[in-house]
Amino acid sequence: MPSRVLGLSAHYHDAAACLMQEGRLTAAAHEERFTRRKSDAELPLRALNYCLQEGGITAPDLDAAVFYEKPFLKFARVLIGHLRSFPRSYPSFRRALPRWLQDRLSLPLTLKSELGFSGRTYFVKHHLAHAAAAFLPSGFTEAAILTADAVGEWATLTRGRGSGSRIRVESEMCFPDSLGLLYTAVTTFLGFAAQEGEGTVMGLAAYGKPAYLDRFRAIAAARPDGSFALDQSYFDFYGEERMYTPRFVEAFGRPYAPKAEMDQRACDIAASLQALTEEILLALARDLRQRTKLDDLCLGGGVFLNCVANQRILEESGFKRIFVQPAAGDAGGAMGAAAFVSHCLWGLPRGGPLSPYLGPAFPASRCRRALAAAGLTFRELPEEKLCRETAKMLTEGLVVGWVQGRMEVGPRALGNRTILGDPRNPQMKRFLNDRVKHREEFRPFAPAVLAEEAADYFELDSPSPFMLLAPRVRPQKRAAIPAVTHEDGTARVQTVAEAENPRFYRLIKAFRELTGVPMVVNTSFNRRGEPIVCTPEDAVAVFKATAMDALVVGEFVARREEHA
After folding, report:
1. Alpha-carbon distance 389 to 380, whole Å?
2. Where are the beta strands (DSSP E) in 86-242?
3. What is the DSSP letter of 383?
4. What is the predicted pLDDT for the residue at 563?
5. I want to staple 300 with a disulfide (CB 3.0 to 4.6 A). Which of 130, 202, 343, 497 is the partner?
């Protein structure tokens, strides 16, 4: 029976590759981590080469390659959309057509020329790939499935169910009615970049009130089951410069320039958008629960990187458990497409719990060489002393870069490519945003907390290993952890179990032994506009370019001279 399948996503944003062997996911990575181009959309040749190396095979050894959407079906939608919007869509069409004709419609030929692979190539519908990525690694025997993103071929949202190794999509919404595109259009209206700034808008929403909610409800007319129709007079999804029309500007005021100061109007617009998003998703989930009568729900697609909405679904939809995989967006589509072929087509048994640590790791010799080449003074420590010394540095108010083991897949740093701080320090949030991350001061930071003690600090009764839930911080604990308590009293929590990440767990435990607080500040190891670091050399470059105080790479600890 065939068992080696390469999964690919590309040509929109967050290109990625993965490898499944014997039905088990053995490697996965974003292309951006290798090219250092944020949200790199090109065919992920570097990521797929890493996956093949990690799996100990070459391209001719593969039984199949699978792509996360059907290019000809998507091309038909792009053509029709541009024709409907002609003539204002002509500049966009002129830019898009050569890329489609050059490589997007000829993946088998591209794989043969680039890799020497001439075996079977499968194409899985975009939202079916999201559904597979959500359900197949969930551990649920049977579950309802809800997917939502900007747009795949035509679908923007689907509802269905999974059972065993079968997935059935029962209904879908189609372009141009898209919750993901609505969120992105408002993101660009507020001056943030599409496909990057949506999380920023989610954070900004905590500072506002939903004063514009009625206007958004008029634009996105919702039905009782949560489905909706966007009033297209407010949007121009094939426009030359922006995704919204003058009518949208009339309704919400002047748009914001990039890097503009966020005033109360911006905060209220963000809060209103977030409130509408939660309303729609909660209605969809409640309807799905009523129709399926199932206890478990799997969520897929980039919309479900919205951890605030996920929390409300968990608490208010009627489902007892939800699962959102760490790469819920397009990068995870590669994983879903490969899983669909492996389990649903080939019948290979589903594996155990999904680990996010699927990227490359680097040997001690590479770590030592990177530090030495940068002229840094460093020491090598055994693990127990390494964790204890790192924890001590955090108690002293130092900011520490932490690079360990295999790189995470997905947009969240989960303890292996992470910047650490002290959650008790009320100045930590401002320092990290200003001096290290170089980003807006309102951006929140996440706590990484010992799993068994999470409920003592957060209103959370289920694991959150992928930082995709935002429970409320218990009121009596908020003063103790100001650096991770957001403006609305929530926190984007990562629960850390010893079996999932032993070294990160031991570091947090060492911090608790020194302070009594079982968590650390955890934010992704990158600067604004850059991908999360991959290699030791990437980490050293960011460390030297920011105000971080110390760097821990593998077993090696380097401190700035003033802290040595």
Report:
1. 12
2. 120-123, 142-148, 155-163, 166-174, 220-222, 228-230
3. H
4. 52
5. 130
pLDDT at 30: 98
Secondary structure letter of residue 474 according to DSSP: P
**pLDDT greater than 90 at residue 302:** yes
Residue 28 pairs in a beta bridge with: 18
DSSP code per residue over 324-365: E-TT-SHHHHHHHHHHIIIIIIS-PPP-SSPPSB-S----HH
Token pair belonging to 62? 């593969």
The residue behind tokens 């065993």 is: 164
Query: What's the DSSP call for residue 73?
Result: H
**Length of the chain measured in residues:** 564
* Whether residue 101 has pLDDT greater than 70: no
Domains 4-136+328-345 and 174-324 alike in fold: yes
* Cα–Cα–Cα angle for 314, 315, 320, rounded to 5 degrees: 60
C-alpha span between 199 and 24 (Å, rounded): 31
- Reply yes or no on domain 4-136+328-345 having CATH 3.30.420.40: yes
- Placement of tokens 């929530």 in the chain: 490
Candidates 13, 30, 130, 486; catalytic one: 13
305: confidence class by pLDDT, cuts 50, 70, 90: very high
Whether the CB-CB separation of 248 and 189 falls below 8 Å is answered with yes
Long-range contacts of 435-442 (CB under 8 A, 24+ apart): 435/546, 435/547, 436/399, 436/527, 436/546, 436/547, 436/548, 437/523, 437/526, 437/527, 437/528, 438/527, 438/528, 438/546, 439/200, 439/528, 440/200, 440/204, 440/262, 442/203, 442/204, 442/207, 442/262, 442/487
Q: What average pLDDT does range 371-378 have in this prediction?
A: 96
Mean pLDDT of the chain: 94
In sign, the C-alpha dihedral spanning 23, 27, 29, 31 is: negative
The string over 100-109, giving b where at least 16 C-beta atoms fall within 10 Å of a residue's C-beta and e elsewhere, is beebbeebee
pLDDT digits (tens, 9 = 90+) for 321-356: 999 999 999 999 999 999 999 999 999 999 888 999
The structure tokens listed for 316 are 């208010």
- Level-2 CATH architecture, domain 364-563: Alpha-Beta Complex (3.90)
Residue 99: Cβ within 10 Å count: 12
**Residue 13 among the catalytic residues:** yes
Which pair of structure tokens corresponds to residue 184?
């992105």
Please give the structure tokens belonging to residue 297.
Answer: 């729900």
Name the residue with higher pLDDT: 127 or 73. Answer: 127
End-to-end, the C-alpha distance of the chain in Å comes to: 57
Tokens matching residue 395: 């108690």
Fold of 174-324: Nucleotidyltransferase; domain 5 (3.30.420)
Domain edges within the chain = 4-136+328-345, 174-324, 364-563
